[in-house]
Amino acid sequence: MSNTMYIVRSLDETISQRVESSGAVTSILKCALETGLVDGVVAIKSKNGDRFSGIPVLITKPEDLLETTGSLHCSIPNIARFVKEYLAGGFTQKLAVVGKPCDIRSIIELQKRKQIEIDNLYLIGLNCTGTIKPAIARRIFRDEFNVDSNDVVREDIDGDKLTIYLKNGKSKSLNLLKLEKKGLGRRDNCRRCEIKIPTFADIACGKWGTESEETPSTFIEICSEKGKILVERAIEKKYIKVEKPTRESILLRDETDKIWTDRATEQRAIDFNPIMEMSYSDRLAYWVKEFEKCIKCYGCRDACPICYCETCLLEANRDFLEAGVIPPSSLFPLTRLAHVGDSCVNCGQCQDACPMELPLTKLFTLLNSRLSEVFDYKSGVDLDQGPPLNTANVQELSIDDVFLDVSTLTKRIKK
Ligand code: SF4
Ligand code: SF4
Ligand code: SF4
């Protein structure tokens, strides 16, 4: 049966007056907090009003939700890691978590590794066209738009356009794809991101499909029982009003999604084909040359939402890596690749953290896409699909001739 879809508007006057979008998501969150459905809301807020420093926050007072409204396209917060590291993985409280598709996918992969208690989480997914690294965004605003980045109060990515809204009430637009041809624009991983509508969250929310509406509204797809509870409670308690989308509205949303997904598929071909056309030895040489830039700062490991081992094999002198050797052995990136490659959700956090600008997402996403083909697996979208390199299915376990001897490895770990 297909999911229920609604065009949603806020009925909360404070929210409608203060929020430029429809305020539907904020109203649903407010209802969840005020009626005790959740103990807190995890959302993004700009740090001291700086749009380039969006940080994840835990909101427990409904009035504070207004600080988290609006999109921050030039911040790259690590929501899944925040929930896992700082909120005890949701094991101790019920939370509504608002995130982009890659954030929600990270949470789903962490649940498979028992690092998150997803039953306590209400996942509110937002459609996403991509994010821009803060330093690149400042450059675009200064050199391409000729404005002071501190004067930008909002930005939007729509169709081919990047639009900025200024303090003086004016707006300016530039062609995003042209900017990207110049090496500016969205992050590399966002350009390759093929999942734009997070239908694996409890609700998937966005403006696509609402363009013809007279007043701002949000298109919401209810994707689970928890999602149904969230939305129905907000309707019943009069926080939101809903109507069924027209057929045109649904088609428009699907078409917009397809345009962005096709672009990402094209970008993958541009980035990956030259590597896949190399011989194995040239390919290895290509990556080893990149690995030689590594200064073993551990930024990629620490930023990756999927990395979770408490005792990391990659710490110096744990057999794998000698202390004080830079660049580290290629085992450093290759071990991380083996550990998380099957679950990589293309979030880009590793590459953003890398001071040496290694093209880490190219490597991880390329491997992940190959594994997805081999194992018919898509990371972060289905809780019932175990990570293929960490899970043996019934058929695999029944193969008589396969014997996996892990005794030598466990001895090394225990040392
Ligand atoms: S990878 Fe980029 S485009 Fe994809 S969901 Fe994450 S932020 Fe959005
Ligand atoms: S390897 Fe990089 S892109 Fe993949 S999940 Fe980890 S941080 Fe995200
Ligand atoms: S972030 Fe970059 S430099 Fe640091 S350990 Fe990872 S690959 Fe090496």
Mean of residue pLDDT values: 91
State the helical fraction. 25-40%
Global geometry: globular
Uncertain runs are 406-415
Small molecules in complex: iron/sulfur cluster
Determine Rg (CA atoms, Å): 22 Å
- In CATH, the topology of the largest domain is named Aspartate Aminotransferase, domain 2
The CATH class of the largest domain is Alpha Beta
The DSSP helix count reads 16
SSE pattern, N- to C-terminal: EHHEEHEHEHEEEHHEEHEHHHHHHHH
User: Into how many domains do the coordinates divide?
Assistant: 3
From the helix content, strand content and strand pairing, which structural class follows?
Answer: alpha/beta
What is the CATH architecture annotation of the largest domain?
3-Layer(aba) Sandwich
Work out the number of β strands: 11
Keywords:
16% strand; 16 helices; disordered C terminus; Aspartate Aminotransferase, domain 2; three-stranded antiparallel beta sheet; globular; Nuclear Transport Factor 2, Chain: A; alpha/beta; 415 residues
Summarize the structure.
The chain is an alpha/beta fold and about 425 residues long.
Structure characterization notes:
The chain folds into three domains: 4-128 and 189-260, Aspartate Aminotransferase, domain 2; 132-185, Nuclear Transport Factor 2, Chain: A, CATH 3.10.450; 278-414. Helices cover 39% and strands 16% of the residues. The chain is built from 16 helices and eleven strands. The chain has helices at 13-18, 24-34, 79-86, 101-112, 134-144, 176-181, 188-191, 225-236, 247-276, 280-291, 299-303, 331-340, 349-353, 360-375, 394-397, 407-414; strands at residues 4-10, 40-47, 50-59, 95-99, 121-126, 152-158, 161-166, 171-175, 203-206, 218-222, 240-243. The chain has an eight-stranded mixed β-sheet with strand order 3-2-4-5-9-10-1-11. Strands 6-7-8 form a three-stranded antiparallel β-sheet. The model is unreliable at 406-415 (pLDDT under 50). One iron/sulfur cluster (SF4) is lined by residues 294-300, 353-356, 358.
